[in-house]
Design brief:
The chain is α/β, with parallel strands linked by helices. Helices cover 55% and strands 11% of the residues.
């Protein structure tokens, strides 16, 4: 048995290491020759992507809600390779922008106008008199760049996963709208923008008048996030810009999305042989019947939304993070109390196990993601927010680890227990929809967290125990939430 485990560990180490190396090589190859420079426009962080001595048109690139500059580099790099000068920036409150979002999030003249002004400022900083700047944006940014286009002398506008009420028959006059195949409602909106010009227009058709040119393009087999890595979508964006600027420069569009997935999967897989190196401190797994574990989960799932929504604090400058921290803290502490009352022994703590899990999860996985996929490195202003979130995430993940026995319970039991947590978030949203609407965005983040970091935690628990796994995962979850969600100005 021990020899079989050793062989599996060696195989994962070799295969995972090879996949990581090949993935990094391919991802770096996509950046080859491109000068990537960090700049600022006021306090707005900007990344410039361009070949040495490039003098092609300027393309200003904007990310979606809870996104960052790094999420848009799959578009920026091919454009740079084709001779364009691409400038991607972090919206207020996003990525590593130290200035929080301000204004009313629910009103066009509120936060939207603030972000439009920021986009105009960035575009004007790099625009040149001889040729109008192009604008490219995803999701939330599509409305922003379309509104900004009304205030600027712009060239082509590329809107990815677009929704905007600012599109008219005349403006933008040069518009490519890209939607994922599985974005049904956004595809309808894209087609509506094109049919303003020609009611008979269909997806994939270029419609033109003397002053307007538009197209609705569908990226196959993609949804709202994967459309950012679609090779078809990126090829079409480059072709559209080339046609608009009458350029013939082309560039290869590499499959960076798959290599990014490969790299992150390799990092997760490598956590298994690395966890096996930890000193074995688990002598036996404390058992508790599923019925008792379920009861210890259903009670907080029912009680916490009723209590937390009556308090709903407003003390953290991150969207709904203060409520989430409170919800997680109450949920976790009540679950832990019930588990203990039902006779569950928590076991020992391995500092080495916690440290290994946190360092690998944030250091290896996080830095890989930050370089190639999305922001994962906080600026100094977010560090105290991460610490504050720990007050909720640590007891929550500790309770989760103890209820699931560090991942030793059957999968259907683990899924059943975790279902009630998501149900509790749904209950909170139902009780305060206007105030907690943005909690809807938290759900997918935590699902991904369970898939990615949950595996690392399970392997750690096999050696260092469920308590160590839960504490480590709590710290990682606080970090992930703290760097992902937008900073907002706290209203007095």
């Amino acid at each position: 048995m021990m020899r079989a485990i050793a062989r599996v560990r060696l195989a994962v180490l070799i295969l995972g290491g090879l996949l990581a190396l090949v993935s990094v090589w391919q991802l770096e190859k996509a950046r080859s020759g491109v000068e990537i420079t960090a700049l600022f426009v006021g306090q707005t962080p900007v990344t410039r992507y361009a070949l040495p001595n490039a003098d092609g048109p300027v393309v200003v690139i904007a990310h979606g809600f809870a996104g960052s500059r790094q999420m848009m580099q799959a578009y920026a790099l091919p454009l740079a390779q084709a001779g364009y000068r691409a400038y991607a920036f972090d919206f207020l409150g996003h990525g590593r922008n130290p200035v929080p979002m301000s204004g009313d999030l629910t009103k066009i003249e509120g936060t939207t106008q603030v972000l439009v002004n920021q986009t105009v400022e960035v575009a004007q900083a790099f625009a040149e008199p001889r040729q109008p700047v192009a604008l490219l944006g995803h999701s939330m940014a599509t409305d922003i760049i379309i509104c900004a286009a009304q205030q600027l002398d712009v060239g082509p506008v590329v809107a990815i996963s677009a929704f905007s009420g600012a599109v008219t028959v005349a403006k933008p006059d040069d518009l490519l709208v890209i939607s994922g195949q599985w974005e049904a409602r956004l595809r309808e909106a894209a087609l509506e923008y094109v049919q303003m010009i020609d009611p008979a227009a269909q997806e994939g058709m270029v419609v033109e008048t003397d002053s307007v040119r538009r197209m609705a393009f569908v990226a196959p087999y993609t949804e709202h996030v994967s459309v950012l890595q679609s090779r078809d979508a990126r090829r079409q964006a480059l072709a559209w810009l080339n046609e608009s600027y009458q350029r013939t420069n082309t560039a290869a569009v590499p499959p960076t999305g798959w290599w990014l997935v490969g790299l992150l999967a390799a990092v997760v897989a490598l956590a298994y042989p690395l966890a096996q190196v930890l000193p074995a401190t688990v002598k036996s797994v404390s058992r508790l019947s599923f019925r008792k574990a379920l009861l210890a989960t259903v009670i907080p799932a029912t009680v916490v939304p009723l209590v937390a929504t009556t308090i709903n604090p407003n003390w953290l400058p991150v969207l709904v993070a203060d409520y989430l921290a409170l919800h997680l803290a109450l949920y976790g502490m009540l679950q832990l109390l019930l588990l203990r009352l039902f006779g569950l022994r928590f076991g020992s703590v391995s500092i080495l196990g916690i440290a290994a899990l946190v360092l690998w999860g944030i250091g290896a996985f996080g830095l890989a993601l930050d370089r190639y996929g999305a922001n994962f490195v906080p600026n100094a202003d977010r560090l105290w927010v991460i610490l504050a979130l720990c007050l909720g995430t640590v007891p929550f993940m500790l309770g989760d680890a103890m209820a699931t026995q560090g991942g030793f319970r059957p999968m259907w039991q683990r899924l059943g227990l975790r279902f009630f947590f998501f149900a509790s978030l749904g209950g909170a949203i139902a009780l305060d929809f206007s105030g907690l609407f943005f909690l809807l965005l938290i759900g997918p983040v935590i699902v991904l967290f369970y898939i990615v970091f949950g595996l690392m935690g399970r392997w750690t628990a096999q050696r260092a125990g469920a308590v160590s796994s839960g504490l480590g995962l709590g710290l990682i979850l606080a970090w992930a939430l703290g760097v992902s969600f937008p900073f907002v100005a706290i209203s007095g």
